[in-house]
Amino acid sequence: MHRYRKFLSVLFIIYIISAVMSSAFAVSAADVTDETPVIVIDAGHGGYDGGATSGIRYEKEYDLLLAKYLRDELVADGRFVVIMTRDTDVYMNFLDRTMTGLRADADFLISLHCNSNTVYYVNGAEAYISVVDEYNTRPLADSILNGIQSSVGIKYNKVDSKEDTGDSLGIYYWNKDKKWDMPGAWQLGKKSDFYSILTWSSKFGIPSMILEAGYLSNWSDRAIIDSDANLKKIAASIADSFAEHYFGHTHTFTSQKVVVHPSNCSLTGSEAYRCTYCGLKKGTTALAAKDDHYWRQESSAAATCTTDGYINYVCQISFNLDDKGYETPVHRYTEKIPAKGHNYVVYSDTQSSHAVDGKLHKVCSTCGDEILEIRQGTPHNYTVAENVPATCDADGYTKYRCDICSEEYSDPIKAVGHTYEEAESVPATPSEDGYIKYICSVCGGEKVTVIPKCDHEFESVTTDPTCENEGQTIESCKKCGYKTTSKIDPLGHSYEVISVIDPTCTVSGMIENQCTVCGKHTSDVPAPLGHTFVLSSKKLTKTINVCSLCGEEEIVKNVGAIVILWVIGTAAVISLAACGFIYIKKNGLPQKKTASPKAENKELSEKE
């Protein structure tokens, strides 16, 4: 993207490679210097966009032919570097067309078109130039239109500028410092260009022009334009104007480099010396990268008393580029606006008293939010002043009176209503009325319901009794509605044994019964049988009994026999002791015998 004119011989090779990769271009064989003008020729429309039509060809075909003829003329001149945005029938968007000029560090971009109008007699060549003062190309536009008129006779119609008329974001205004436009920011001053090719060229620091070579809708202009020979003449006159514009004077360059377009958040800018007459650049160098944004407000919400507000900002530079197809991140940030908080003012204020609450009513002067504070008054101290109980047919009440201010109120007690029970019933007959007498069980009041005389036709509804509950039969007369009710005694359970566990000598048994009618279960628990012992064997000191049912043994000790044996044994021991004592007393204690020498020797011998 950077151009170093001292090394344009190297850039010449780069341009050739770039032409193969993206766009067509041509240069003369003359020596390229740092002051060689770089011209970008843009053939309008292309591909699916045919533009206007002459009835013979689409505008895009004339545009491309004229662009090629102009390229050939400038190359033949030998003093220009020429780059084509397209040399085939393809469509390119406006950003891509002007990006071609940005990448080539172009000195000028001319976009070639043919015009059309619904009014057939409108004719002539026109040029549209930028509304931005520093990119005003009127002198060159005048020269080109005069040259076309002289060479082929298509009259000089006008050189014009058209300001932006707005889109969904509003009208765009040009910012001189950013060299970028912004929608809706009228404080910036002058409106931006209506035509995108001019707007994007200005953003990239490239003087530009849209040339409308004539009206295809006018028969006179169309007849001239439809001739390839005339298209070549138009191209030659345009080339002459470029030659005069760039080489008809001595270049006077600025003493210091000026910014061609500044660096921003998405593109690296450049600076160069510029001719003060024709705008030719030399010594182009890149500017340092700079994360410089051009913020505009995208959306917002005002802060309220209770909720935060916000302002969402988007960088117009990155937004424009991304919106038109250049792959770059869109930069955004959000500014938070804190909630303001309520500003309450007192609307009304009343003091409390006995049985009257005071009220403090405050209203927010900003949003109208209200606060009502209740100051409780001294409450009534009610006690019962009178109590009249309700009866069966009359309401009662309880009267309360405040001990402080004597205010009263009553709580009604509704009549409880009679609780009638049937006391007597006489059925109606075909000749006499019957009646049912009811007596209130609370107050004793009576009520008699007459049953008109009727030859009754009863229908019976019977509810069968169960094992535990009564049944009933209700007979209702179909004519008069008289009813009689007769009770049916419960059936009672009919149990049968469904399982038996016999008791043992020590464990209870279990008998389970079930009603054959309702299925209810009951259980009986027979007590343990207890042991039935019989004599098994009998000895001097004990008797052994055995249970005849389970075989368990019972040992019964003979205490009397044990005592007798103890007494006999004790007597025997005493007798033996007595005999020994008598013997010792008569004979003395026995003496210890001394062994004879022979005997000792014998023992010693045996021992050895």
Q: Sum up the overall morphology in one term.
A: elongated
Q: N-to-C terminal Cα separation, in Å? A: 136 Å
Strand residue content: 25-35%
Helix count from the secondary structure assignment: 10
Structure description:
The chain is an alpha+beta fold and 608 residues long. 23% of the residues lie in helices and 32% in strands. Helix 2 (59-77) crosses helix 7, helix 3 runs parallel beside helix 5 (196-203) and helix 4 (138-152) runs antiparallel to helix 7 (228-247). Mean pLDDT is 87; it is low at 1-30 and 593-608.
Short description:
By secondary structure, this protein is an alpha+beta fold. Helices cover 23% and strands 32% of the residues.
What is the secondary structure topology, with strand pairs?
Elements: H1 8-21, E1 25-27, E2 38-43, H2 59-77, E3 81-84, H3 94-103, E4 108-115, E5 125-128, H4 138-152, E6 156-160, E7 172-175, E8 180-183, H5 196-203, E9 208-215, H6 219-225, H7 228-247, E10 258-261, E11 270-274, E12 281-286, E13 295-301, E14 309-315, H8 316-323, E15 332-337, E16 344-350, E17 358-364, E18 370-375, E19 382-388, E20 396-402, E21 408-413, E22 420-426, E23 434-440, E24 446-451, E25 458-463, E26 471-477, E27 483-488, E28 495-501, E29 510-515, E30 521-524, E31 533-538, E32 542-547, E33 553-557, H9 559-587, H10 597-607
Parallel strand pairs: 2-3, 2-4, 4-9, 5-6
Antiparallel strand pairs: 1-3, 5-9, 7-8, 10-11, 11-12, 13-14, 14-15, 16-17, 17-18, 19-20, 20-21, 22-23, 23-24, 25-26, 26-27, 28-29, 29-30, 31-32, 32-33
